[in-house]
Amino acid sequence: MRTLYSLLLMLLSSSTTVYAQTKPKEKPPTQKEMAEMMKEAQKMVDELSVEDKKIMDSLGIKMPGFKNIPNVSDKQLADAMDKEDRIVPKKDAARIAKLPKAISAGQMLSFIQTTNNKAIPLLNSKQKTMAAEVFNLIKQKNNSADYLGNAAINLWMMGYPEMAFYLMGKACEQDATDANNLNNYASMLTMMGAAHLAIPVLDNINLKFPKNNTILNNLGQAWFQLGDMPKAEKYINETLAIYSMHSQANFTKCLVEESKGKIPAAIVAIKKSIKKGHTPEKESKLQQLGEKPDPKDDNFPQEAKKDPLNLGGFMPPAFPISVMECITLGMEWNDYRGLLNQQINRLEALKKEAAIKSEKFLTKQMEQNQLVMQSSLKEGILTGNLSNAPLYAKRAERQLKEVTNTYQRKIIDHMEKLTAFLGGSGNEYRKRYEEKMKKLQKEDLDQTGEGKPNANFCPQYREVSDEYLKAYNSQLQVYFKEYLQIEKDYLNQSTHWRMYTDYPETYDVAKLGAQIAWLKVLKATSPYSFISITNYVCDPSRSPRKMALQKFDDVACKYKSVLRLPFGKIVSNCSKTYGEFDADFIKFSLTMDAEKGESFKEQFIGGTVEVGISKSAEKEIGPVKVGASAGATVAVELDGSGLKDVTIGAGVEAGVELNGTAGSTSAGIEARVSLVSGHSTVGGTGVFEKL
């Protein structure tokens, strides 16, 4: 089995990215050294046992072969190593030389048509055919360029960039004056590998809409892709001067600063980027730079309520501080604990049922993922969607860890104080009580008998017992209430964060577990067992009050945003983000799944879709401007594996349905949708890389 592990580790390490600032620059292997490594790898494959081969086969992993490796020159190996070590792209003088001259508004249509004539033939043939069908379908519903452009953005968000580009190109041919569509068209060109063709378009609309940080960022990203760092920095810095927290501009700023060896500045930039749009890639970059994400910087769509489970509504009886109360409150505590046990048993049964449902859901999800993985390995591309963790899960896990660490610190501190009481003043109370009672018992014995006073000492016994009960139980109750508060805070907060770490199908197990834990805490068992003395009642006691339990409040995700676009919508809540599409689009989606891997999953570089919300009278023609001062926005962060974050900006209430279709409204709200380009990989990306 060791050989199998070694082989898998070797295969994994072969695809590991190398970063110049975190790993010393290594000498590239020579052709001879590479051949030796391939021989060693083949030897490991040959030595696999039958059992190991069965394991790999069950995982759907094809047996690798290293015998017919193509010859690679020392220069090619050195170039590959250099590309791997780079943080920013190398300056592409050849493509910069291809940059067209500045284009006027009158020349824009001709430029778009010429660019489309070059680019569209490079699109995947099947996606191109389907895009033409979608185009015809859209024209029957709404023939406006606005509608067509937003339909293209919807396709982009769903993971079909080639179809999206086809439609956006048609939208710009139909109306070459729509600045928002032109921005989105240029952004697509950049993110699909043709930054040199995007720049003239962006330069044109930048003259019309100066200080628009979406346009400025997209210019910076285009020059970054071409490797012209001075020009990239110029536009990125202009973007950040307008909005210092810009998600994509800060990520690129981080890479530029890192490439200069300015690690502290790179860390500041990537932290700002994460705060306004979280992706695993950004988090990984921060860790490569030597820091961990700060839980204080994590954003969530819904604030925690103070007591979401209504744990404070459960009021246990008081601790008795007199003999008479030991009778009455003792009976109340017996009834109360009986009710607690009944409720615990009921919830345990519900939790058991929920656990079975949860296990079935997780098993089904795992089986579906395995089928996708096996099919993808067989086809060589991703043939379906894997069920990943909930959108905010990793961030919520950090919050949960903070809550747990705080809880553990408080419990340790609390238990130290309680132990000191039990072994200190609490023990002294007991000793003094026993001494006083021993003295009273001697006095009572001495005056009891024939011919003696035989006075009733019960009131005296009760008085000493009351004194002991008041001193001991009062102090113990203070510690019990402190313990309840610690547990209450932990259970409420952890249950809140589990809304984000768990799926709705598994959340009930956690919620019921928290409720059961709280009921057990309320029982006041050891070391919070109060002292009860019932031997010296002397007088009839009052009847105990009838006990009843409060009810838990339901903890549920109250946040829900609906981003409507042509052919469907994206729904986001605490633990789920999903797309709902109409019947027409489902047909296209199912048909196109097998084509997604090659053009999107492997090549898409990531970016942001900004939805700007405004009243119709305030609507601008240009692209959305990001930032608090630019009005209400919803930002959707994307990378090659799909949607990674949804950030609700100022002025947008959770629960409002945001209509992304230009020209139509929902409760008086209009939206424009703009693409904000992300940084390019150092080795080029996209189907238009060779344009």
Radius of gyration: 34 Å
Question: Main β-sheet, in a few words?
Answer: 4 strands, mixed
Give the termini separation.
48 Å
**Percent range for β-strand residues:** 5-15%
**What CATH architecture of the largest domain do you see?**
Alpha Horseshoe
Short description:
This protein has 691 residues and is α+β, with helices and mostly antiparallel strands.
Helix and strand layout, with pairings?
Elements (H helix, E strand, L loop, with lengths): L1 H12 L17 H16 L3 H9 L15 H12 L7 H5 L10 H12 L5 H17 L3 H14 L2 H14 L4 H13 L3 H14 L4 H13 L3 H14 L4 H13 L3 H14 L3 H9 L34 H57 L13 H31 L1 H22 L11 H44 L2 H19 L38 E5 L2 E5 L4 E5 L1 H10 L3 H6 L5 E8 L17 E8 L2 E7 L8 E3 L10 E8 L14
Parallel strand pairs: 1-7
Antiparallel strand pairs: 1-2, 2-3, 4-5, 4-8, 5-6
Helix pairs in contact: 6-9, 7-9, 8-9, 9-10, 10-11, 10-12, 11-12, 12-13, 13-14, 14-15, 15-16, 17-21, 18-19, 18-20, 19-20, 20-21
What do you see in this structure?
With 691 residues, the chain is of the alpha+beta class. It folds into 3 domains: 2-85, no CATH class; 108-302 and 557-691, Serine Threonine Protein Phosphatase 5, Tetratricopeptide repeat, CATH 1.25.40.10; 311-522, no CATH class. The protein has helices at 2-13, 31-46, 50-58, 74-85, 93-97, 108-119, 125-141, 145-158, 161-174, 179-191, 195-208, 213-225, 229-242, 247-259, 263-276, 280-288, 323-379, 393-423, 425-446, 458-501, 504-522, 583-592, 596-601, and strands at residues 561-565, 568-572, 577-581, 607-614, 632-639, 642-648, 657-659, 670-677. Helix 14 (247-259) runs antiparallel to helix 15 (263-276) and helix 18 packs parallel to helix 19. The radius of gyration is 34 Å and the shape is elongated. The two termini are 48 Å apart. The model is unreliable at 1-24, 590-603, 615-619 and 658-669 (pLDDT under 50).
